[in-house]
Design goal:
The protein contains 19 helices and twelve strands. By secondary structure, the chain is an alpha+beta fold. It folds into three domains: 47-135, 2-Layer Sandwich (Double Stranded RNA Binding Domain), CATH 3.30.160; 143-282, Orthogonal Bundle (DNA polymerase, domain 1), CATH 1.10.150; 287-520, Intergrase catalytic core (hpI Integrase, Chain A, Orthogonal Bundle). Strand 7 and strand 8 form a beta hairpin. The longest helix has 31 residues, at 476-506. The chain is elongated. Keywords: DNA integration, DNA recombination, DNA-binding. Residues 15-31 have a biased composition (Low complexity). Residues 284-485 form the Tyr recombinase domain. Belongs to the 'phage' integrase family.
Length: 521
């Protein structure tokens, strides 16, 4: 269009061609919210039948208006079940989470009656699940029956035969006499507390606690087959807590198996809050055997039979637990026989003299232990093979290898009488060997803590944290170096102790023995 041409007034301008905004609608009141469909109604069998006839995709719960806490559940397959729900309160009146129990009812009328009984139980502070489960045949077993089933459970779980036997023995000897005829579901907090109190008053000759008042000043020694036996009655210390562990384990098993409903088992607390050994550790008064003490014990078994002498001395050289080495089998002894053929499937594997103890023999039963043997330990095991043979399975046996050594009680009486100058008199035990070996290896040999922990067979996770998932090295060579140095230290202490005894026997003092050496200097 030419600039001189006048605009066509009939043609709309650009502003006129723009669409105009739609007028805002008039303000209206918000739509009212529809009430939520309530699932609380007066339950009838007809209503449940109609609901079951519908094509449900999931279970539907309906609460009864007539009986508080009664809930009917209709499943997609048409089946129905009745439950009673309640919210218990603590002693301070604080409400807890809802709990529920299934009611054994076939229709609404029976469900209301059983729900009313459950509500009455809640009103007096009783858990309705206990009342319902008490009439369940599966939960009506006695404590004696539960102990037998618990033993089968422990065996099927893969626990060692020794652990299963000890667990059953604790329950049979201490729990069954007083509570064996009680139903397991009827056990109360008072029953368990009374049981623990009774156990804590027991005394036995095998205990390590304080002696009885009439025997505190003098030991009573009897003789069994010509050997002395310490019959001093002492208070039990660890027995109550050991029994507590098995009772708690059995109640947890019964809950998991459905024999006891959840929350019914009584709450158990350790009868001895701090055991004497833990108290001594906290106070810094724990018994520690030094190398001089080990030298006395080493010489104290000189006249014992070969299997006793080698067993005690190996426990000094190798920090095993007592039962781990007592039950040693010839099939676990590797590399001691010079004619043994070794197949090197793993170039990094240790093929020297060693003990390959399987996991089930070690504490916990989860990890095996490979213990390298220093030269003196190898010589001892060869002596055992030469004098007693390898016909049976067990190395330290008096029954031609059929069973392990089982004379520790009489042996400890003899050792304590021959080593009268040990710490804390006659209270030291074989388990103190582990503490002494670990402490001396740290103090005198400056061994690394990680190697000492490996020798003691402590948990990988506790020892290394998450690193143990990646570091799979056994550190066997480092373990052997520490054991070899410890062996040399023990031999040196034994020689010094023998010289001291010879000097005392001949009336020569240690100063007189040292005079020629000073003169030579």
């Amino acid at each position: 269009m030419d600039a001189s041409t006048p605009p066509n007034r009939n043609q709309p301008t650009y502003a006129a061609r723009r669409p105009t905004a739609a007028p805002a609608p008039a303000a209206t009141a918000p739509a009212p919210k529809l009430p939520r469909q309530s699932r609380r109604t007066n339950l009838t069998d007809r209503k449940l039948d109609d609901l079951a006839a519908k094509r449900l995709t999931k279970a539907v719960d309906i609460t009864d208006r007539t009986q508080k806490g009664l809930v009917a559940r209709v499943r997609p397959n048409g089946t129905r079940a009745f439950y009673f729900k309640w919210r218990p309160t603590s002693g301070e009146g604080v409400a807890r989470k809802f709990r529920s129990v299934r009611l054994d009812a076939a229709n609404v009328a029976e469900a209301r009656k059983k729900a009313s009984e459950a509500a009455a139980a809640v009103a007096i502070g009783r858990d309705p699940r206990v009342t319902v489960a008490a009439f369940n045949p599966a939960s009506a077993i006695t404590v004696t029956t539960a102990i037998g089933q618990f033993k089968d459970y422990l065996t099927g779980k893969g626990n060692t035969a020794g652990y299963v036997t000890n667990a059953e023995r604790l329950l049979r000897n201490h729990m069954e006499p007083d509570l064996g005829n009680h139903r397991l579901i009827d056990l109360t907090q008072r029953d368990i507390a009374t049981l623990y109190s009774k156990v804590m008053t027991k005394v036995t000759a095998k205990a390590s606690g304080e002696a009885e008042p009439e025997q505190a000043n003098a030991q009573t020694l009897k003789r069994r087959k010509g050997r002395p036996v310490d019959s001093t009655k002492r208070k039990v210390t660890t027995l109550p807590n050991r029994l507590h562990t098995q009772v708690k384990h059995m109640l947890n098993w019964a809950t998991e198996e459905g024999i006891l409903p959840p929350g019914v088992a009584p709450v158990l607390r350790r009868p001895v809050k701090i055991e004497p050994s833990q108290q001594r550790l906290n106070d810094g008064t724990k018994r520690v055997l030094r190398v001089g003490h080990f030298a006395r014990i080493w010489l104290a078994v000189e006249d014992e039979p070969v299997h006793v002498r080698v067993l005690v001395r190996l426990l000094i050289l190798l920090p095993f637990r007592r039962e781990e080495l007592t039950g040693l089998m010839w099939s676990w002894v590797k590399g001691v026989d010079a004619a043994e053929n070794v197949l090197m499937l793993d170039p990094a594997a240790f093929i020297g003299p060693r003990l390959d103890v399987p996991a089930w023999r070690m504490k916990g039963g989860k990890r095996p232990q490979l213990m390298p043997l220093p030269s003196l330990a190898v010589d001892m095991l060869r002596e055992m093979a030469d004098q007693r043979g390898v016909g049976g399975d067990h190395v330290f046996s008096v029954t031609a290898g059929r069973t392990a050594f089982a004379g520790w009680q009489t042996l400890m009486v003899r050792l304590r009488s021959r080593c009268s100058d040990m710490p804390e008199g006659d209270e030291w035990t074989i388990h103190d060997f582990r503490t002494g070996v670990a402490t001396e290896c740290g103090d005198r040999l400056n061994a690394e803590e990680s190697i000492i922990q490996r020798l003691l067979h402590h948990s990988n996770g506790a020892r290394m944290g998450v690193t143990w998932r990646y570091d799979q090295s056994k550190r066997v060579d480092a373990m052997l170096r520490v054991l070899t140095e410890w062996q040399a230290l023990v031999v040196q202490a034994v020689e010094a102790e023998q010289q001291r005894r010879d000097a005392v026997a001949t009336g020569v003092t240690a100063a007189m023995i040292a005079l020629p050496m000073r003169a030579a200097e």
